[in-house]
Amino acid sequence: MRLHRCEGCLAACGRQRRATPLSTVPRTIARTKALQRARRGPYTQTMSKENCIKMETPPTPPDNEAPPMPWFGMDIGGTLTKLVYFEPRETNRRELDKETEVLKNIRRYLTRNSAYGKTGRRDVHLQLARSKGMADLVNTIYATGGGAYKFEEDFIKEVNMRLSKMDELDALIAGVLFVDCMNAQECYYWAPPDEQAVHTHVTDSPPYSEAALSLYVRKPFDFSSPYPFLLVNIGSGVSVLVVNAPDDYYRVSGTSLGGGTFLGLCCLLTGCSSFEEAIALAASGDNTTVDKLVRDIYGGDYARFGLPGDLVASSFGQMCSAERRAKVSRADLARATVVTITNNIGSIARLCASNEGIERVVFCGNFLRVNPLSMKLLSYAMSYWSRGALKALFLEHEGYFGAVGCLLHLDSKTHRRKQAEAATADR
Ligand SMILES: Nc1ncnc2c1ncn2[C@@H]1O[C@H](COP(=O)(O)OP(=O)(O)O)[C@@H](O)[C@H]1O
Ligand SMILES: CC(C)(COP(=O)(O)O)[C@@H](O)C(=O)NCCC(=O)O
């Protein structure tokens, strides 16, 4: 059973204290057995394929020890706090009796509003079906992300609440695998209608221009056989993970030039005050007035090494000229910032993928939120520079996977406990 988005269980708030088969892609990358062996990672991870399959069976009612609703998973990152809230459809009599007035109020507050305080927003469009099978989850506040460690004492002092902490990369992968299992539309990619056009560079317009990128359309991708894949999480900073199996992954690389860098630089350069404003500015800008292109240096292509004239040779390379600085617009600066950060992440991801012999590169994290420009740039760059061997993939729930992974952690804990109890009873 695959669930589609409809009615709700996922809520979110911002923080300020608070199917195309891969076989259509040429396999130009050699994958050796040695590489596969080398991919054994040091981490264990809580989500298993069994858990995923279990979600397809009918729900079991919560046991007597299940803590009362509401159930949360929280990811306190470097920029945003993501909160997911689970509300089972199959609330039974016993559970309703247990629900205190305070909890009822919390539930009402969460489910009847779409904005919370000054900065909290509910991403109504990302709500998943009130999924069957999650009903045997139990939870208190499960938290991940750096803030779960940094603010742990504050939670105890201020609200007398304990955080049960989970590693953010464990949670991220668990969340990605689970949400993809539950939502057939989760994974997608961007390509022009004629997909070959990307890596043969046939359009007249420069590849990074709005004219070229506007041709790209979103297409569904069947991610049911995902392994191995590279997971690139673009949050405040960037983590790159090699995922070989649900319980086998490792962090292969990262960069400090991520979503936080984009927003910070954009605020500095353009005076904008929100991510949405920065992205809207970038959408109407032209980075070629800011960046130095290959043709600005060569007068055309640098053909010997396959560098087209309209490729960025030097990001912000024009800005050493006072005359050009005087002419450049805020929108151009915002676009150059997106292009710089995105291309750098794309290059790192591409190098990691070829080193590891991996063809599918999945990008997630809130930097991609309302940001089709970066997704299209990544799609173009991955495909063009690998001559079609690498595929950039994206996920509908962009930045919520860590928080979802927290809820699942609780599920796996419950199961481990039940297994231990069963084993003791058998003795
Ligand atoms: N409403 C927003 N406010 C601030 N940053 C946002 C917003 N929406 C998207 N972003 C982008 O997402 C990045 C944070 O991504 P996220 O995956 O939540 O990472 P983290 O866990 O580090 O907070 C920001 O650095 C910014 O580039
Ligand atoms: C430290 C982090 C894992 C924190 O995650 P985030 O809150 O940015 O999502 C991440 O910012 C990161 O991997 N930074 C890059 C560090 C580096 O490899 O240079």
From TrEMBL:
This protein's record includes keyword Endoplasmic reticulum: no
Enzyme Commission number(s) of this protein: 2.7.1.33
GO terms for cellular component: cytosol; nucleus
Reactions catalysed: (R)-pantothenate + ATP = (R)-4'-phosphopantothenate + ADP + H(+)
Group of enzyme by EC: transferase
Pathway: Cofactor biosynthesis; coenzyme A biosynthesis; CoA from (R)-pantothenate: step 1/5
Keywords: ATP-binding, Coenzyme A biosynthesis, Cytoplasm, Kinase, Nucleotide-binding, Transferase
Protein's GO biological process: coenzyme A biosynthetic process
Alphabetical list of SUPFAM superfamilies matching this protein: Actin-like ATPase domain
Compartment list: Cytoplasm
One MF term in the entry's GO annotations: ATP binding
Entry's family note: Belongs to the type II pantothenate kinase family.
Protein name: pantothenate kinase
